[in-house]
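Hi all, long-time lurker, first post. I run a small reading group and we've been trying to get comfortable going from sequence to structure in the token notation. Rather than ask abstract questions, I figured I'd post a concrete chain and ask someone more experienced to write out its structure so we can walk through it together at our next meeting. Sequence below, copied exactly:
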Amino acid sequence: MSKKFTRLMAILLSLNLTFSTGTFAAFAAEAEDGSTDTGYSESGDPAASAPKAEDSSIENTPDTSSPAPTEGTGENAEPSVPSEPSAPGESAPPSTSEAPAEAAPSVPAEKAPAAEIPAEEKPAEEKLVAAYAVTAFTQDSIRYDVSSGDAVVTGCADSVTKLVIPETVTYDDKEYKVVGIQDHAFDWANHRNLALETVDLGGLPLEIGEYAFRGQKSLTTVTGMDNITAVSDYMFTACSALTSVADLSKVTSVGSQAFMNCSSLTTLEGLNSSALTSIRQEAFNNMESFSLELGEHTFDSLESLGIRAFANTTGITGTVVLPERITEIPEGAFLNTGITGVDWSHITVIGKSAFSKCAGLTELHLPDSVTSIGESAFKGSGLTGELQLPNSITSIGNEAFRNVKIEGNLVLPSALTFLGTRAFNETTISSVTFPDTLKNIGNYAFYNCPNLSGTLIIPEGVVSIGTAAFTKTGIEKLEFADSVQTISAGAFSTCAKLTSVQIGEQGKGKSQLQTIGSKAFNNDTNITYFYIEACSADVAIDSNPLTIPAGVAVKFAVTVDGENIREGEATTLQQAVDAAAEGNTTITANKSFIVDGTVTIPSGKTITLTDEGKGLSVVFKNGFTGPAFRVEQGAALILDGSFNFSCFRIANGSFAEVNGAMTLNGGTITRMSLSGSNMGAITVNGGSFTMGNGELSSISALFANCGAVYVKNGGRFAMNGGKITGCTFKNQYSGAVALADSTMTMTNGTISGNTASDYNAAGGVLVNGASSLAMSGGMIADNTAKRGGGVCVRENGTFTMSGGTISGNSTAVDSDTIQLPNAGGGGVFVENDAAFEMTSGTISGNKTNGMGGGVATAVLSENDTVGGGRFHMTGGTISDNTASCGGGVYSWSGRDRVVLEGGNIVNNTAYRQGGGVYVSHAPWSITIKNALITANKATIQGGGIWSCPVGTVSLGTDAAVFGNTAGKSADDAAFLLKWNETYSTSFSGRMYGGGLVTWYRDTSIGAGDQNYGAFGGDRYDAANPGAPVEPASGATNGYGLKAVVSAESKALAETAPLKIMGNTAERGGGVGTNGEVIIPGEDTLENPVSLTVHKVWSGASAYPTAVTVNLIRIAKDGTRTAIGTVLLSERSTDKDGKTWSYTFANLDGAYTYTVEEEAVDGFNTSISGSMADGFTITNSKKSGGGGGGGGHHKPDPKPTPDPDPDPKPPVDIPDQPTPLDPLKPTENIPDSKVPTTKPETQTKTPDKTKTVNIPDSKTPTSSVPKTGDIGGLWAALCGLSAMGLAYFGIRRKHD
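-- Answer (accepted) --
Happy to help. Here is the structure in token form:
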């Protein structure tokens, strides 16, 4: 008996020592001050407890030394489509600067997930220590991360000058193999005070991240690369002192800008060019001292060659020979190099600037495989002699051969269809032959080619001749085929030897000529013959006359319907109007006619003018003074049929001046240049204009207050059909339709393809002064402006949209004003006291490089802090719009002026912040009500909502935020640490529909830089979620949050009238703000109650680190609704601080509540307790340790009625990332679009079992106690040991 007991005591003592070891290891992870890092501070501030790196620049106190960011800081001055970061010293075109440019520190790359052993294979002791094992440490001044099981170098102390990477590193008695160097590990942008001089990579087969040594200007030598196979992107960018890199014998790929701006690097020792498979963009760009003889180095294995790969490296010489698999020479590949030849045998495309400035390239013999020569491909190269191009070429890009000394006869390829701007500018060719496939000769194509002489024939097929195409040439005679329609401004200006011009084949009247531009033949002082043979009167000679020598007659013949029309022929239209009786009269035209004076419709008469669909032309006398039609008050004009009113000869006035009523039911009014301000092609001055059909097109104006339709002085415009298109306005207060203290209704028709180039103008409709626009149908599309591509609402104007579509419009903003409030509004722009009410309709596919792709509001006075345009949305859809900030909606307006409470804001994109909605800097504001914010994506931070350090967010119960994703931090909400108490964050535990939301930490967020904040720590993991984050009110802490909600709560939220879904941005996929976001709804109840749930593991030493518990609300009729979800874990505590517990607080006392646990594999579940005393969920190990779970475990033994056999499932939000959500509904919203069906708001929970298996690869099966939690077991073991020792003493005395 005593021997057995002695053995037992020995085992107990052994266990005692074992747990002592485990406890020591656990305490080894404590902070230096003795407190254990829980990953979240008591205050709930993740930044306050985020671990700091030795060289961290992140502070947990606000930086008050810098001013609050405005648009210029928080929204980035020049947004662009997200791309790879620019390296220091890089610019476009490629930089030649040695020193890297100032750049903000890059955020360290995320840690790779640990490759875990399956949970069932790990010994219990290892599991105890694993959760608190140190994964980052510093040794010999080098920092390492071992979270993957191997060591990765993450940086070093600033004092290091000679860096040597060891093969292994030992920490805490464990040896780790060094396998790589992290992104940005020694990047100058992250280590401003680090000055490495030498680097020895130890001959190790390391995986080296991007930007590893970028900008280390003191670095001279790198050795030990003999087992490196890839030189990563930006690895040595701007290492300007680097002279030697060895040994590169195993390198097969060279990354983007890997050696760019390494101006001192002369050779790359051991680099085997024939083994390279990939050379990425700008890999060897701007290496001033580097030399490489291509004749001695081949690229036999090369599969891809990046743009500007060897650009500006003049030491590259010899003949370029690429493998046959590479058929395209990419952009700038050999720009400004010393090459002397190229093997063209298999090349099909020569990219932009591919051989520009290659002075050593003197000959060009292209095979017929080549089809395209890109922009500036040979610009400024050393080519000489006569250029012979193969007939296979279809395109010659802009400036392709500019400033190249080719000479002789140039015969362009027979397949050529595109000849770009300045293609042969400043060459010395003597003649040129055009193919019949070419339709357009580009602007300046042969500008300043003084040797180009003799007769120039423009053959049949050519349609247009570009601006200054042949200016300053030696051409003597010109012959144009009938196909030529346009001779642009200055096309043949300053051709001193030109004597004869024949346009169209004489006597046949088949020329299609339409336009001769300004000064097309300016300074051609020797012309003696000029003949235009046209087939219609529709030939526009620019108001700036043909400046040919005085006394040279311009012969002009015009035929219409086969009959000659002579200028000055008397018109009979006014006579017909005068002869009409009062009332309604129809005048029918049987042939085209000339109008030489204004036709006036007097009061009392209604005149209908028609050609009965014949398509007749109406021609105006040269120098005609308008208007063509004047409709007096009390009169009416109706234009029917299909007339073509070509108005280019109207030198002054409108086409129609309407004081009475005018209707356009057909035909085209086109080609009119307005000569003054406060007018349009149709000027409605207190009268009315109705457009039922027909077209207004190609109307232009240089003056202010103009439009194709200009409505003033209380006039009215009703657009019920037809089209206004192709109009251009270059001054303020203009638009395709411009309203000045007047009204417009739009029920149908299209306003498209118009352009306004001043800030106070609209591409489509300008609503100015006290005007109003009511749109219930039709389309405003593809217009362009600087503000309000589709509609611009100014001053006290109002816009009501109850139908129709505003799509494809755009605003292009100058870079120096991109941050100003007057920049943006791709679809609609609303300013100052103007208002936009949207109840239905669609605003989609609009874009801006400024702010507000769909809708933008703004205040234009710097002193106004409360005003701004008003936007109220109760319905309709704003979708697929794009902007720098605020892809869907942008607010630069004061509180309560932008209110969103219904409709759909979906699938919009912002390159910077606020994919769906964005608010400019404080004090500007937006109010969001009745909203579902889900399925949005941020590539960096804050998938649902993002707020900057000077942003204020009040997230009340009037919105539901869940199911969003973020690439690096805070899937659902990112609230950056506030700079001071002026700004704050509030968020509720309840959401729209009445469901509860449980918030969890999803990385910590600190103050960081003044614009975006910094984030660190682990991402949310449903298998090990940590403690829930309590709702906050008026907090200044930083929060990175993940929302966990039940499926039934989601279904309740899906009834929200406003959907903000599927939007994308870098930060704030759904909503972003530098100002104020108000989501109302106080989380207060008349009779609040709370319920506590506690978890007990019985008889088990190994169990999951987290389990899912649902809060069930029970209505008086017995309806059960899972309105809340919590992931219970050791880190979740109740109101009394008890672990494995949680208190559901602030519940509506009108209901009763219970809890259910999702099944835990291998455990039986029982629930005891009451709502008043709290519930205890006890899990006991099943015999045999396996088997499935028991489904939803309920404390209520009473059976509840079964639901309908086929209840309607709730509609789910797509891409909900919580992997342990047991209530997954069965219907998904396709493609992140708005739900098309509404879910039932409540369903009775089926009394069925449901197995939830926790994946072994993510969740260990044992619990992970914290430091101090094994104290009880420790005490018990010590007691047992003492008992054993006492027993030994008694036995010894007895013996």
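A couple of things your group might point at:
Residues 2-27 form the longest helix (26 residues).
The chain is about 5% helix and 35% strand.
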